[in-house]
Design brief:
Shape: globular
Order of helices and strands: HHHHEEHEHEHHHHHHHHHHHH
Length: 431
């Protein structure tokens, strides 16, 4: 049997790719009435936060697998931080710049319905109040110069997740900001968590601590600003997911070393538990009282998310050469999918409306050309094309840009510590 330290979890590669696909659907499928009118689709695509939380758990699980050796880190903390930064920041900065460029294009073309209001200054205050659904215009805001400058600085330094009031430019980029905070904590906390004797007790403690803030907020009836944003993305409130992933790997590693293998029925039971949690949560989130959002988003689903990662890690390597070839490529592109799918969607739908309208009229009647584009309804065929193109673009972007930039940075700044070619841990949006 291959040593556990060198094992590649093909099930986790596919999981992180599918989580990226789900987040794409979560942020874009609601734009298509043809999809939302299908019974049950709205509920099934409403749980973006489940995917993001699972991704954070998965990140902790894989980082522990790659970097923790016994009770210490494989690399010095500074080397670990540098490698993670070199992997994360190129994706972040390209996603940020592309978002600004696409918003500028949308603003210039002004194609209805999104174009006329497009602006890098436009934000929506985060709230879980009923008023946010009945009167969303009350929570729309255009940043002034000071707010724009301040939030631009936060974006450049990947600190935007610490703003609990609203998300700027490219909403899903908050997850990269949160991930980097997890990376800062990892060298200090991961070895201690991995060597803890009572792993199940620590999991219970982390779960209880994770549920405490939403319970307090529900008790105090604080559903508005800034409490929704605090629970949704401020890194300190999401740390239990990352720590849960590390502890989940500690359990996985111990079971492997002790040759404790789950039976087929145990795996099926775990799968049914995960599916039941997801389906019940989707029903409660979409049709239940508003307090369910905070409970489901912050803690209640953590056991099912750890179980999901654990179960996928058990998947055996398939005999298919095609699957073995594509699983690492698609898995590695998942973080780029999280970061780039929104600007790519805004660009794609703008161009679809433009070219399916009356583009030839733009040479003689610009206003008529833009008006014709605004009357175009987005097509399901176009949406499928967007999904496939986004996956392809992100795979190429990861392999041809991110990997090359990372290797150059490692060669320049970590010349004595080259990357060893092991599985890169995944680094989600409002999610």
């Amino acid at each position: 049997m291959k040593p556990l330290e060198k094992e590649r979890f093909i099930g986790l590669e596919w999981l992180r790719f599918l989580l990226g696909c789900y987040v794409m659907l979560y942020h874009t499928a609601h734009t298509y009435p043809q999809i939302q009118n299908i019974t049950g689709v709205g509920e099934l695509t409403s749980m973006g936060f489940f995917a993001t939380s699972s991704f954070f758990v998965l990140s902790g699980f894989l980082l522990a697998h790659v970097y923790v050796r016994g009770d210490r880190l494989r690399d010095p903390a500074t080397t670990f931080w540098a490698k993670r930064f070199f992997n994360l920041y190129p994706i972040h900065i390209v996603a940020l710049v592309s978002s600004v460029l696409v918003i500028t294009l949308m603003q210039w073309l002004a194609i209805a319905p999104e174009g006329p209001g497009a602006s890098v200054r436009f934000v929506v205050y985060d709230t879980n109040e009923i008023l946010g659904q009945t009167n969303p215009e009350l929570f729309r805001h255009y940043m002034d110069n000071v707010q724009l400058a301040f939030n631009s600085v936060l974006q450049v330094f990947m600190l935007q997740a610490w703003n609990p009031y609203f998300l700027t430019f490219n909403a899903p980029l908050w997850s990269l900001s949160t991930l980097f905070f997890f990376y800062v904590l990892f060298p200090y906390c991961a070895p201690k968590l991995m060597s803890a004797r009572r792993t199940w007790l620590w999991l219970a403690i982390i779960w209880a601590l994770y549920l405490l803030p939403p319970v307090l907020i529900i008790w105090k009836n604080l559903y508005g600003v800034p409490y929704t944003g605090l629970l949704q993305r401020v890194p300190i409130f999401r740390v239990p997911e990352f720590f849960g992933g590390i502890l989940g790997y500690a359990l996985f590693r111990r079971a492997r070393l002790n040759q404790q293998i789950l039976s087929l029925w145990q795996r099926r039971g775990m799968g049914l538990f995960i599916a039941a949690c997801f389906l019940i949560a989707a029903a409660l989130f979409t049709h239940g009282p508003k307090y369910w959002y905070f409970l489901l988003h912050n803690g209640l689903l953590l056991p099912s998310q750890i179980a999901l990662v654990y179960l996928c890690a058990l998947a055996r390597t398939p005999d298919s050469a095609w699957l073995r070839h594509w699983s690492p490529r698609l898995g590695a592109a998942s973080l780029s999918m999280f970061a780039l799918h929104v600007p790519l969607f805004n660009l794609f739908r703008t161009l679809e409306q433009f070219f399916r309208g009356n583009p030839t009229a733009c040479f003689s009647d610009w206003e008529g050309c833009i008006a014709a584009a605004g009357e175009v309804q987005l097509s399901l065929g176009g949406y499928v094309m967007y999904l496939l193109l986004t996956i392809a673009v992100c795979v190429l972007f990861q392999e041809q840009f991110v990997v090359r930039v990372r290797k150059r940075l490692v060669a320049q700044f970590l010349s004595k510590d080259r990357e060893d070619g092991r599985l890169d841990a995944p680094d989600r949006s409002r999610s």
